[in-house]
Amino acid sequence: MTSHNERPFVETYDTTLRDGSQGEGISYTIDDKLRILKHLAAFGVTYIEGGWPGSNPKDAEFFGRARDIDLGTTQLAAFGSTRRAGLAPEDDPNLQALVAAGTPVCTIFGKTWNLHVTEVLRTTLEQNLKMIEESVAFLRAAGKRVIYDAEHFFDGFKADSEYALATLAAAARGGAEVIALCDTNGGGLPWTIEPAARRAIEAVPGVRIGAHVHDDTGCGVANTLAVIQAGGRHVQGTINGYGERCGNANLSVIIPNLELKLGYRCLEPGKLREISELSRFVADIANQHLDPQTAYIGKSAFAHKGGVHVAAMRRNESSYQHVAPELVGNAMRVLVSELSGRANVLSKAEELGMTVDAGTEAEALQDIKAAEARGLSFESAEASVALLLQRKKADYTPLFEILDYQIQVGKRGASDTFAEAVVKIRVGDELLHTAASGNGPVGALDAALRKALLPVYPMVNRIHLADYKVRILDSASGTGAITRVLLDSQSDEGAWSTVGASSNIIEASLEALIDSIEYGLLRQGASPPTEPLSGEARALARNSDPPPSLKVAPAAVFPRS
Fold first, then answer.
1. Is residue 107 a contact partner of residue 49, using CB atoms and an 8 Å limit?
2. What is the full DSSP assignment across 51-110?
3. Which of 101, 403, 464, 541 could form a disulfide with 555 if both were Cys (CB 3.0 to 4.6 A apart)?
């Protein structure tokens, strides 16, 4: 078996900071770009394209600050274009800005398609060849390594293959060490990309050929791999496929395909395991939702829902997975829903680190199916699944029980609205009864419940609600529609999600809230009290100070009769 270091090497060129920033809704600050730069370098891509220093002050400042950052073996590239038709290279502001950026690598694009030469640049075909060769040669004379992006290569090849190949030869004469064949409009298909790439490789022997592909046909990854199959050894793209229109080819998918499917080496050994975390990091910085169904790195990439699938997976994980998720830093997940079988329940229990009493998995499955029939969805609420399984155990004792609650919402004076909640709960042999106010009915209910629990479970203050999502399931039913509430919670022990559903939004919220707090307490090691409240706890119940934003009535403590 060939070792990792003996495999043929394919260079990875990341343009998330330049081409990726052209995606709709993405705007990086300079600090954002520097954070991504450091993360990409630590991951180990071969090149990082930082931006176009001649196009805006932000990119010029970025390159100035990037000079002080140790990127290890990764090379930083500045991006620009060939000289203008009427200027010598040394007089061209764009080329001067590239040299001034101080990067070891410069990447420039030039025109390959005769349509662009005559209609966009408004120059001659021969002059365009000189522009390409002289621009590359100027940067090489300035001590730069040069990557040439052959813009619109595949459209140009289709229109006039001889001229398209002549532009590549001009870049090679100028001293380009890499020529990236660009499918700039993203309209290519793999069976047209590969033969054109083979012709390009034959036309410029001794120059590494690469791919710079956009995803307008949904074939960005496939078209990139087609260039590699033709003999290319350089891939350009962005993390998560960010880019203009439909985006660029997705490096988060290309790199695993190269390493796991095609036998190439792109990264140092073990680094591939970091690609899922890198994708999430970049998505967070870009303030973008990461598509859960993205191959390899998406949350759903190794999620299994069908009962038949999960049953087979319990016998052999390769039966419904093409690679081990750990290879890309992802994890297998089992979803529990009305489509589940007993294997889903058992696998979910194992995933959550729980044991299930013999025979109770079938009963739990029926409860899950019934709950989903009335509107719950457990796929994104694994804490609620864990509690459902926990409550099936013979020795289960709830940490607390809601006996009754009341909520009042109204308005005082001209503008002040209010929400107040009263709850009565049972904890062990104690009844706790308290009230609280909040910004709304759910906030007031949450505050009152926490107030009542505080004397017994002080760690409840470490549980925080991070997000509150509401979905109306059958809007045609009007005010009688079923409402599903999903709560995201977190503490020092991590994050979790719970769900509730009812035609009453307060009841749905309370279901999710009870699960959220009980699960959070269990994660912190809480157990039901076995003795009456101490005097100190009773005093806390009567006198504890609420958060400044809440005006909470003291909790009354009643011994259980």
1. yes
2. E-TTT-HHHHHHHHHHTTS--TT-EEEEEEEPPPTTS-GGG-HHHHHHHHTT-SEEEEEE
3. 541
Residue 210: strand pairing partners: 180, 234
Domains of the chain: 4-286 (3.20.20.70), 303-390 (no CATH), 401-559 (3.30.160.270)
* Mean pLDDT within 325-333: 86
Work out the pLDDT band at 355, boundaries 50, 70, 90: low
SS3 annotation, 121-182: CCCCHHHHHHHHHHHHHHHHHCCCEEEEEEECHHHHHHHCHHHHHHHHHHHHHHCCCEEEEE
Six token digits for residue 12:
């990875």
> In this structure, are residues 138 and 131 in contact, taking their beta carbons and an 8 Å threshold?
no
Q: What is the residue type of 451?
A: K
Burial, 459: exposed, middle or buried (Cβ in 10 Å; 0-12, 13-18, 19+)? middle
Task: Copy the structure tokens of residue 493.
Answer: 């022990």
For residue 491, give Cα distances in angstroms to 106, 153, 397, 445.
47, 53, 23, 20
**Beta-bridge mates of residue 435:** 422, 553
More confident residue, 500 or 81: 81
Distance in angstroms (rounded) separating the CA atoms of residues 331 and 328: 9
Cα gap 384→395, rounded to integer Å: 18
Q: pLDDT tens-digit profile of 43-73?
A: 999 999 999 997 778 888 999 999 989 999 9
pLDDT tens per residue across span 183-221: 999 999 999 999 999 999 999 999 999 999 999 999 999
List the beta bridge partners of residue 212: 182, 236
Q: How far apart are CA 303 and CA 379, in angstroms?
A: 10
Distance between CA 125 and CA 127 in Å, rounded?
6
What CA–CA distances, in Å, run from 437 to 161, 474, 485, 549? 74, 31, 21, 9
For the chain, the average pLDDT equals: 84
Q: Judge whether residue 312 has pLDDT over 80.
A: no
Is a pLDDT exceeding 50 seen at residue 556?
no
- Cα–Cα distance, 92 to 305 (Å, whole number): 59
- Alpha carbon distance 289, 291 (integer Å): 6
What residues does 494 pair with on adjacent strands? 491
CA 363 vs. chain centroid, Å, equals 36
H or E segment at 534? none
> Above 70 in pLDDT, residue 342?
no
pLDDT in tens, 368-408: 566 555 555 555 667 777 777 777 777 788 889 999 999 88
Residue 209: strand pairing partners: 179
Q: Which of 253, 236, 234 is nearest to 20 (CA)?
A: 236
Pairing of strands 234-237, 303-304: unpaired
313 near 319, Cβ under 8 Å?
yes
Euclidean distance between CA atoms 179 and 150, whole angstroms: 7
> What is the amino acid identity at position 10?
V
pLDDT at position 478 is: 59
